[in-house]
Amino acid sequence: MTNTNKNLRFTKSHEWVNTDVSPMTIGITDHAQHLLGDIVFIELPKLHTHVEAGQEIGVLESVKAAADYYAPVSGTITEINEVVLSQPELINQDPYHTGWICKITPDQSASTDSLLSEESYQHHIAE
User: Is 77 contained in some domain?
Assistant: First the structure.
């Protein structure tokens, strides 16, 4: 894994969220982009939309398949990475930095307790 930010938390459905910034940044994991292959299209979530943790917020399409991605926490989408609309390959090239998908302002009651640490996520994908 190319991630060196220990503030990232992961979902079992292969999203990451940086819990150390506000709003929190969301993307898909390096493992997920490898499974998908070359990403050719992304549907971004709508700005200012309130989402619940686990809710589908968009779709990624690759040369192999299409896959939904989900909100890791409940909150409001406050920013989207419009660059990936014209350059979806950034998600393959740099999923933790330039290939981020959106930013979310979490609800006050939003919890990251159910999210996995990097070590736990690595164990999850090795199973």
Answer: yes
Q: For residue 83, which amino acid is it?
A: V
pLDDT in tens, the chain (127 residues): 444 567 899 999 999 999 999 999 999 999 999 999 999 999 999 999 999 999 999 999 999 999 999 999 999 999 999 999 999 999 999 999 999 999 999 998 888 889 999 999 999 999 8
The 3-state DSSP class for residue 124 equals helix
Q: Which domain does 58 fall in, by range?
A: 8-108
CA neighbor of 45 nearest in space, from 8, 12, 75: 75
Distance between the two ends of the chain, CA-based, in angstroms?
16
Cβ neighbours around 5 below 10 Å, total:
14
CATH number at residue 84: 2.40.50.100
Contacts of 98 (CB under 8 A, 6+ apart): 83, 90
pTM: 0.93
